[in-house]
Write a structure and sequence with these properties.
By secondary structure, this protein is of the alpha/beta class. It has eight helices and 15 strands. The strands form three sheets. A seven-stranded mixed beta sheet has the order 5-2-1-6-7-8-9, sandwiched between helices. Strands 10, 11, 12, 13, 14 and 15 form a six-stranded antiparallel beta sheet that branches. The chain has a two-stranded antiparallel ribbon with strand order 3-4. The chain is elongated.
Length: 315
């Protein structure tokens, strides 16, 4: 097939690689404009652009996908299909109508559940046991098009947003290749999404989401810590400084002295410390203090005189 690939972040790269490996003709790669990052404002290429350049593929970086000039460029390319993986812009109908086989999206959830920008992290945060990837025929709605194929993966007990991201990015590439085969052979029966099964929208992540509310149950906080690892990370405050929380374990509050205020440190030993929550307690195993490296809690405590009775969360 003649393929136009549209994607931007790391998640998109394995699918582009699979398309190339499968022998499809990638006639164009569309990604977001380059961005200046860091203190030095160094201009960085999106990961998809870097991969495209490795393979000497033509790259298009429109500021807006609905620009008439860009749409006309895509018409001139005359692709059989456009593959869209975390591109980062809503596509207009004029673009969706160009390819013979339409625009196929690789979405990192089992639709119709977890429509939205951050389905991977929300699956972990909300305690899902199973997640997966859906290929979808795109329409003008947001993740509302007909479903083409699905593949599932069970979440590990210690699953993080980062580990699930890596699993689904690989599965997405494999599923997309099977989807293209099915579309070309005419063997796929598109399935409409049942809107009643959509569930809560998987909204975009921001740093504010990571601020830990210790009045929440310990299980929910532990899932938040895993879901927001590696970005934007869960955090609290200790002695007025930001403390990122990277790894924790739910334990019984009764084992550490009974009732206490949420956020109160119940016990401290050589390997970590335990914090009271709204329901149960949380054993902190890995953290990172403001301006410091990530470390296990034992290493942190060797240089800190933390004591039971102190309160986390006070800015």
């Amino acid at each position: 097939m003649r393929v136009v690939f549209m994607g931007t972040p790391d998640f998109s790269v394995p699918t582009l690689e699979k398309i190339i490996e499968a022998g499809h003709e990638v006639i164009g790669v569309v990604t977001q404009p380059d961005k200046a990052k860091g203190r030095g404002k160094k201009v960085l290429f999106p990961p998809v652009k870097e991969k495209a350049l490795e393979h000497n593929l033509p790259v298009y970086q429109p500021k807006r996908a609905r620009e008439p000039e860009f749409i006309e460029q895509m018409r001139e390319l005359n692709p059989d299909v456009m593959v869209v993986v975390a591109f980062g812009q809503i596509l207009p109908k004029a673009l969706l109508d160009i390819p013979k086989y339409g625009c196929v999206n690789v979405h990192a959830s089992l639709l119709p559940k977890y429509r939205g920008a951050a389905p991977i992290q929300w699956a972990v945060i909300r305690g899902e046991k199973v997640s997966g990837v859906t290929t979808m025929q795109m329409d003008v709605g947001l993740d509302t098009g007909d479903m083409l194929m699905k593949t599932e993966v069970a979440l590990a007990e210690d699953e993080t947003g980062g580990s699930l991201h890596d699993k689904l990015s690989v599965l997405g590439g494999e599923l997309l290749i099977e989807t293209l085969k099915g579309l070309e052979a005419g063997t796929i029966q598109p399935e409409k999404q049942d809107d009643s099964q959509t569930g809560e929208y998987a909204r975009m992540l921001d740093k504010a989401l990571g601020k830990v509310d210790f009045s929440m149950p310990a299980e929910e906080i532990e899932r938040l810590i895993r879901g927001l690892n590696p970005w934007p990370s869960a955090y609290t405050f200790y002695h007025g400084k930001t403390m990122k929380l990277w790894k924790a374990k739910v334990v019984s509050a009764d084992a550490d002295g009974g009732a206490a205020a949420p956020g109160e440190i119940l016990s401290v030993d050589k390997k970590g410390f335990t914090v009271q929550t709204g329901d149960g307690a949380l054993r902190i195993l890995e953290l990172q203090m403001e301006g410091k490296k990530r470390m296990d809690a034992g290493a942190f405590l060797r240089g800190c005189s933390m004591a039971a009775g102190e309160i986390l969360g006070q800015e």
